Amino acid sequence: MILMQGKCVPKGVTSGPLYFFRRSSGEVTQRTVADIEGEKARLERAQAQSVEQLEALAEKCRAESGDESAVLFETHAMFVEDEDYVDCILSALEEEHCNVEYAVRQAGEQFAAMFAAMDDEYMQARAADIRDVTRRILNNLMGIVEGGIDSEEPVILAADDLAPSETLQLDKSKILGFITQGGSGNSHTAILARTMGIPAICGLGDALKQGYEGRTAYIDGETGKVCLEPDELTLQSFREKLAKQEQMRELMQTMRGQEDVTLDGRHIKVYCNIGSPEDVSAVLANDGQGIGLFRSEFLYLAASDYPTEEEQFQAYKSVAEAIGGKRVIIRTLDIGADKQVDYFHLTKEENPAMGLRAIRICLNRPEVFRTQLRALYRASAYGKVAIMFPMITSVWEVKECKRACKSVMAELTKEGIPFNPETEIGIMVETPASVFMARDLAKLVDFFSVGTNDLTQYTLACDRQCNDLGKFFDPHHPAILRALKMAADAAHAEGIWIGICGELGADLSLLPTFLAMGIDELSVSPASVLPLRAAIRRSIAQTCTLELLEG
Ligand code: PEP
Ligand code: MG
C-alpha cells in the first residue's frame, strides 16, 4: 500500500485511474526548414484533424443545445480551409522557408488583426474565432491535447501544480478528482475545484510520482490522504465513506425548495459562487437562491486575448437569464497575484498580492474597465444584475468606480441601448483598510460582500498561496471575526446588507457566529448550498453568541 498525505480542498472521496496533466507551453518559434513539401503535408494532416474535431463538436452541440452553437463550429470548420487563410500560410512557407507552426501563427495573427480593425462590431468579434481556429490547428500540429487530458475514461488528474487558467481549461467531464504536489487550499485552483464540486488534495509534495500513472488512486478529501493499492481494511473504510457520502447526498436533496430560515424565523440568503456561465447548472441543481459572486476574471483567464464587450455581454446575459430573475452579483475583473493573464502584460512584481491587481488595474486602464462596465450594464436589462468592485481600500476608489458607471450609463442612454439604471453597486470588503473605512464606504454603496480569503491573508500577513504556513493561516482568528463584526455593524448602521463570499461562508462551525453578527447573505460553492441550508434550518438565531470573537 502506498499512502500520501496532503491538504484537503473540498470534502469527498473518490477513486479512479491516475493520469498526469499534459502540459505544453504551446510556444511557437521560427525555424528554417528545407523540406517545404513535408511542412505542407503536415499542414494538410492538421487541417483534416481540425475539421474532423470541429464537425464532431458541431454534431454534439446540435444534439445537446441546438443549431445556434453548432453553426459556430461549422463556421470554424469552414475557416480551417478558407482559401485566403491557407494561401497566406502557403506563401509564408514558400517565401520564408519556415516551419509550418510559425506560418500558421503568422497567418492567424494577420487575419485576426484585420478583423479586429474593421468598423463593424460583429466583424470585430470574428477576430476571436480566427484565433480559436488558429489555436486548434497549432495544437494539432504540436500534438497538444485540448483540456490537458487524452483519455477516454474519467481520471484522477495529477499535476505538479495547476494554474487557475489551466484548471479552467480542463475537460471537466473527464475528471473525478485532482491531486497536486504543490498548491495551497486557499488558492484559486482549490476554489475552482470546490466550485466544480470535485474532490481534490493539494500539497502532496514529492510523494506523488509520475511513475504512478495508470494506477487506481483512492482519494479522501476529508483526511487529505491519497492511497494506491490499499490493504483490505483501508479499502473497506473507503467503501463505507463512499456509501455514507451517497446517503448524505440523497438526504440533502430533501433541502431543495426549502427556505433558508432558522427555527426562530431569521432569514439568511444562501447564494453561490461561480466562475463561468457553465457553473449556473450547478447553482440550479443545488437550488442556490442567487449568485453572490461571479468571478468575471475567469472569462479573461480562459481567453487568449481581451474578451470583447459583446463576448462579455453574452456571458453575463446568459447567466442573468439562466438564473431566472434571481440576483447575480458580478465582480469586476480581479486579476493579478495568482491570476495572471499573459495578454495584460503586467509587470513582474516582488509581491503581486499587494501589487497592481483587481480594481487598481481597472482604474489605471479605463478602456478595459469601460468595456466591462458597458457589458455589465447591457446585461442588466436581462435580469437582476449587481456590480461588485474587488480590493477596495479607499473612498476615492469607490467614487471613481461610480463615476465610471455613470459615464457608461450616459453612453448607453445616448446610444439607445437598454440597461437598468437602478443596478445595485457593492464592494468587496477584503482589505483591513476597507474594514476601518467601512462606515464611510457603506454610505456610497448598496451592499458589502466580505472576501474572507484575502481579508485573512492581509489581516494576518499570511500569503494565501503559501503551503507551509499551517496554523498561522487561521481564518478563525478572532481578528478576522472581529473585522467581520465591524463591517457588519457599519453596514447595518448605514442601512445596507452584508454578505460573505469568501470560503469561510461555507464553514458550518462559524454559522452561529455569522447569525449572531446578523450577516444577511452567505455565498458558497454550489455543492455547499444544501448542507448550509440544513444547518441554518436547525439553528436558533437568538441563542447564537459572539464568544469566538473573544480570542
Ligand atoms: C476573497 O478574497 O475572499 C474572495 C472571495 O475573492 P477571491 O478568492 O477571488 O480573491
Ligand atoms: Mg479576494
Explain what the structure shows.
It is a single chain. The protein is built from 20 helices and 16 strands. It has helices at 36-65, 67-80, 83-96, 100-116, 121-142, 164-168, 188-196, 232-252, 280-285, 297-301, 309-322, 359-364, 366-379, 395-415, 432-436, 438-442, 452-460, 478-493, 511-517, 529-537; strands spanning 2-5, 7-8, 13-20, 155-159, 175-180, 200-202, 216-220, 225-228, 269-274, 291-295, 327-331, 384-389, 424-429, 447-450, 497-500, 521-524. An eight-stranded mixed sheet has the order 1-8-7-3-4-5-6-2. Helix 1 (36-65) crosses helix 5, helix 11 packs parallel to helix 13 (366-379) and helix 13 (366-379) crosses helix 14. The longest helix has 30 residues, at 36-65. It is globular, with a radius of gyration of 25 Å. It binds phosphoenolpyruvate and magnesium ion (MG).
Strand order of the largest sheet: 1-8-7-3-4-5-6-2
Spatial gap, N to C terminus: 42 Å
Q: What's the count of strands?
A: 16
Beta-strand content: 5-15%
- Low-pLDDT sequence parts: none
Molecules bound to protein: phosphoenolpyruvate, magnesium ion
Protein structure class: alpha/beta
What value does the average pLDDT take? 92
Largest sheet: 8 strands, mixed
Number of helices: 20
Shape category: globular
**Oligomeric state of the chains present here:** single chain
Helix content: 40-55%
Rg result: 25 Å
